[in-house]
Structure formats: C-alpha cells, structure tokens
Specification:
single chain; mainly alpha; 8 helices; 0% strand
C-alpha cells in the first residue's frame, strides 16, 4: 500500500494541473483527480508552481483553505464511491447529488461528514467510525 506524504500529494496535484494545461495524457488516478482540479480554478495558481506549493503553509487559523487537502478529500470520496466503501456510500452520495443538484456540492457536504469523523477519531484516540460517517451522509441526503 502506498502512503503518500505531504510533498507527494502536492506534487501529484501540481502534475495533474500541469498535464491538464498542456493536454498531456493522464494516468488512471490522475484521470480521477482531473475533474476536481478543473472544478476548482481558484486553486490553479497555487497548483501552477510545484516548488512554491511545497513551501506553502495552511495553518488552521490562517484563514486560507488548503487546496491540497480539499482536492485530496474529493479524491477520497470519489474512490470511496467507486468501491462503495463504506458499503452504502455510493448510493448516499448519489442521493445527495440529486438533492443538491450537483455532484460537486454533494462532495462538499460529504467533506463535512468526513472531516467530523476524522476529527472525532483523533480527539478520542479511536479508529474512524465508518458507520457514523455513512449515517451523517445519509442524513444530509434525506434532509
């Protein structure tokens, strides 16, 4: 299993952005990430210079969203849906997409659930609870 570090993730998204701008062929995982990079033009400047991207800092209280974390969450949710893990996430995200009228907006809502699950896991020193996460997404899809 591959566990990328912060610089690997930043290089990956910068490479996807560069390939999109130069119309170079994309690897399979890059094809999954490409639509999310394209849907976030507000990040394109930060993705355009890998050297600078490796130096950027996004403190929680800094008032700036971390584009690499944000895009990684899109990629994680897309992967979860593709393999339906946790079981039921695909249909919950599809229902949420229909309710919100946008897969992109649905992903942003799911990110709230994913972020909460990770935060609670870290706070309590326990493994992430996929059932709680799925229930959060289902609640958003049905409300």
């Amino acid at each position: 299993m591959f566990t990328p570090n912060q610089h690997d993730v930043r290089r990956f998204f910068c490479r996807v952005s560069e390939k999109l701008s130069t119309l170079e062929p994309l690897e399979t995982i890059e094809q999954v990430a490409a639509p999310w990079v394209s849907e976030h033009p507000e990040y394109h400047e930060e993705l355009s210079d890998v050297g600078r991207a490796l130096l950027l800092d996004y403190p929680v209280d800094g008032g700036r969203e971390n584009p690499f974390l944000h895009l990684s969450m899109h990629l994680s949710i897309a992967e979860q849906c593709s393999i339906d893990q946790p079981r039921g996430i695909r249909s919950a995200v599809e229902l949420l997409s229909l309710r919100l009228g946008s897969r992109h907006d649905a992903h942003h809502a799911v990110m709230e659930c994913l972020g909460t699950m990770i935060w609670e896991s870290q706070r309590n020193g326990l493994a992430p609870d996929p059932h709680q996460y799925l229930e959060c997404v289902k609640t958003k899809a049905s409300s």
